[in-house]
Amino acid sequence: MKLAVFLFIIMAWSFITIGGNISPVILPSPAKVAHTFWNLLTVGYQNNTLGQHVLISVMRILVGFLAAAVTGILLGFAMSANRFLMNIFDPIIQLLTPIPPLIYIPLLQVWFGIGELPKILLIYICTLPFVVIGSISGVQSSKESMIRMSQSFGANPIQIFRYVVVPSALPEIITSLRLSLGRSWTCVVAAEMIAASSGLGWIGNMAGLQLQTDVVFVAVLCIAMLGLIMDTFLRWLQRRWVYWEGK
């Protein structure tokens, strides 16, 4: 079914562009985009091949996202277990959550320059609140009856945390990681469009300024495919680690 939908989109796209009534600047044909993709893959764009630009963006994503995931999960667990920490950090998390990524970029540039650090920090700052909220929500979803039953069987706090709280929290945590991953791509593309000389966001921005719509399409499709691959991996982890969900 998914393949049929994909083929239908390609056929409709080809049909719209095949007559030449639409300028390639507005909507390039699938064949043109495929040719541009191969050209970027083999020849490159601005001294880097497409693979190198992809690797640069992915590395920025992985460093910022993984740092936010580890910190967010640990902080979420700590806040759930300690009312004092909850009172301190919860207002901060609530304040950070609605702030759009673009507003941070000028500050991060002033404070840390235009190297890799501000881009990674942007991803970290903008994804951390979602992981924390997901972790707290997951811990709070733990059934009180299961905790009390574990206590009645003599389980200590560490055993309760490991065998009751963590399994109950995992579905919410992985869902928050999937949402945070999408936000990570938004952040890295925004940062690369404004303050970078490499990466998929930079390619899209530079090509757009030069009306190279086919190159922009390649950048967009690469981001979409990479995001899909990463999300598929997280869903695989969810099926493997939370195999009991829905049963």
TrEMBL record:
Gene Ontology BP annotations:
alkanesulfonate transmembrane transport; cellular response to sulfur starvation
Q: Which residues cross the membrane?
A: 57-80, 92-114, 120-139, 185-203, 215-237
Q: Which InterPro entries match?
A: MetI-like, MetI-like_sf
> What is one cellular component GO term in this UniProt entry?
plasma membrane
- Name all ABC transmembrane type-1 domain ranges: 54-234
The yes or no answer to whether the keyword Transport is present is yes
**Subcellular location field:** Cell membrane
Gene3D superfamilies membership: MetI-like
Q: Which Pfam families does its entry note?
A: BPD_transp_1 (PF00528)
Report the membrane topology from the UniProt record: Multi-pass membrane protein
Q: What are the UniProt keywords, alphabetically? A: Cell membrane, Membrane, Transmembrane, Transmembrane helix, Transport
Q: Which PANTHER family match?
A: ALKANE SULFONATE ABC TRANSPORTER-RELATED, MEMBRANE SUBUNIT (PTHR30151), TAURINE TRANSPORT SYSTEM PERMEASE PROTEIN TAUC (PTHR30151:SF25)
The UniProt entry's sequence similarity note says:
Belongs to the binding-protein-dependent transport system permease family.
Question: What protein name is recorded for this chain?
Answer: Taurine ABC transporter permease
- Origin organism is Cohnella abietis
